[in-house]
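Translate structure to sequence.
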C-alpha cells in the first residue's frame, strides 16, 4: 500500500470522526448517533446498493431494524444535523482552498433539483411528474438542493428540501399518512431555494455568486437575492423578456438575433472539464438597469444558445469575466448521478417525510467527508513530475 494512499485513508477516517463528533449533540441517545455513523460509513463503502438490508449488513446488524429506526423513529434533530454538515463542508473546502493558495477562487452556491422514482401513492411528495433522472413523466419525488462550489478546490451539498405538492400539504389525512410535519405549508421550488439560502446565509456562508439552471424565471428568488445584495447568474429560457439599455423590450432569443455577426461575441473558457478547457462564444448585453446584464453562451460546434440573467451589486465590475467563471462552476447534473450511483442519494427505501430527509442528510454527510478529504489531499497528491532541465536528464523514480 502506498504512503499517499495510507495518508488519504487516515485523513478520511479523521474527518469522518470529526464530523460524527460534531453531530453528537443532534441526537438524544448514543445508540442512534452510533448507528448514524455506521450508516454514513456504509454510504461511503463499495457495497453495490445502499438500502436497508445492505446498510444493515455492512454495519454488522442481522436485520435492518436499527437502520429503519434511525430513519423513522429515533429522536434526533434532522435539520440541526444538516446545519452541522453544512458548516463542516464549507469550513473544510475553505481550509483546503487557503492551503492551496486559492483564496481568490470564487465561492458559488449552485441551486438545482433531483428526482427519485417512487411507486405507489403513500410516499411523501410523490406525484406523477416529469423526472429528469429518467427523462420522462413518472411517479416520483423531487428535492431542491444547494451545493457549495469552491473554484479549483471541490464542492459538496450543503442544503436540501423535499418539494411537497399543495394537495398533500393541504389534506390532513394525506399529511398524516405521509408523515408530514404539523403545520407544513406548501412552498414552490423557488421558495424552497430561498429557504435553503436563508439558512446558509444565517450560518455565515459567503457566496460570490448564486447560480442556477432551473429557477431563473422565479421573480421572488431574484428579488430575494437582490435584497441580500447577492450577485447571481441564473439560467433563463429563450422566451424570458427583458429591457435592453436602448429601451427596447425583447426576449432573450430576439436579443441574441440582434447581435452583429462576430463583433458581439468573444471566445472564452468556461473552465476545465474532463476533456480539457470548455470553450464557448459569449455575449454580454447591458439592460435598462445598470446592475443587470444578459449573458449568452453559444456552443462553438452546434450554435446552441444558453441564457443567464445576471445581477452584480454596487461595487462589482460590470464585466463578464466573473459571471462566466461562475456559470462554468455551476455543478453539473452528472454530479447528482455521482451522488446517486456512489452514495445512494436516490436509494432510500422509505416513504415518510422525515425518513427521506434523514437519508438525504446522511448522504450529505458522506459526500462532505469525501469532498473535504479529497480537497485537502489535492495538493499533496499532485505527483506530476517537473519538466526536465537538460535533454539527457534521467527519468525521476516512480513514487509508491
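Result:
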Amino acid at each position: 500500500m502506498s504512503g499517499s494512499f495510507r495518508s488519504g485513508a487516515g485523513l478520511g477516517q479523521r474527518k469522518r470522526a470529526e464530523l460524527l463528533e460534531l453531530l453528537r449533540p443532534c441526537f438524544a441517545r448514543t445508540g442512534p448517533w452510533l448507528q448514524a455513523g455506521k450508516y454514513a460509513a456504509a454510504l461511503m463503502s463499495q457495497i453495490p446498493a445502499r438500502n436497508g438490508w445492505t446498510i444493515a449488513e455492512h454495519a454488522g446488524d442481522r436485520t435492518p431494524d436499527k437502520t429503519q429506526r434511525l430513519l423513522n423513529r429515533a429522536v434526533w434533530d434532522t435539520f440541526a444535523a444538516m446545519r452541522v454538515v453544512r458548516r463542516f463542508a464549507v469550513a473544510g473546502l475553505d481550509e483546503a482552498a487557503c492551503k492551496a493558495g486559492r483564496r481568490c477562487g470564487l465561492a458559488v452556491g449552485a441551486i438545482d433539483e433531483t428526482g427519485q422514482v417512487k411507486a405507489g401513492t403513500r410516499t411523501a411528495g410523490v406525484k406523477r411528474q416529469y423526472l429528469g433522472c429518467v427523462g420522462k413523466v413518472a411517479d416520483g419525488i423531487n428535492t431542491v438542493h444547494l451545493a457549495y462550489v469552491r473554484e479549483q478546490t471541490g464542492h459538496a451539498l450543503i442544503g436540501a428540501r423535499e418539494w411537497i405538492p399543495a394537495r398533500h400539504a393541504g389534506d390532513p389525512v394525506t399529511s398524516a399518512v405521509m408523515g408530514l410535519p404539523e403545520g407544513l405549508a406548501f412552498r414552490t421550488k423557488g421558495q424552497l431555494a430561498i429557504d435553503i439560502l436563508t439558512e446558509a446565509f444565517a450560518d455565515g456562508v459567503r457566496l460570490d455568486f448564486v447560480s442556477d439552471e432551473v429557477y431563473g424565471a422565479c421573480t421572488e428568488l431574484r428579488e430575494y437575492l437582490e435584497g441580500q445584495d447577492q450577485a447571481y447568474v441564473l439560467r433563463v429560457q429563450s422566451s424570458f423578456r427583458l429591457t435592453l439599455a436602448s429601451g427596447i423590450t425583447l426576449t432573450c432569443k430576439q436579443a441574441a438575433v440582434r447581435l452583429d455577426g462576430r463583433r458581439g461575441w468573444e471566445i472564452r473558457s468556461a473552465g476545465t472539464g474532463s476533456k480539457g478547457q470548455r470553450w464557448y462564444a459569449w455575449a454580454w448585453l447591458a439592460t435598462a438597469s445598470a446592475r443587470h446584464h444578459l449573458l449568452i453562451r453559444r456552443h462553438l460546434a452546434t450554435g446552441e444558445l444558453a441564457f443567464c440573467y445576471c445581477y452584480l451589486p454596487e461595487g462589482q465590475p460590470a464585466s463578464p469575466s466573473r459571471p462566466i467563471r461562475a456559470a462554468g462552476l455551476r455543478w453539473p447534473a452528472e454530479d447528482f448521478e455521482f451522488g446517486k450511483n456512489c452514495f445512494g442519494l436516490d436509494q432510500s427505501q422509505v416513504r415518510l417525510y422525515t425518513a427521506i430527509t434523514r437519508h438525504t442528510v446522511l448522504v450529505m454527510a458522506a459526500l462532505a467527508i469525501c469532498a473535504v478529504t479529497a480537497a485537502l489531499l489535492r495538493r499533496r497528491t499532485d505527483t506530476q513530475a517537473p519538466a526536465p532541465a537538460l535533454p539527457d536528464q534521467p527519468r525521476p523514480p516512480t513514487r509508491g
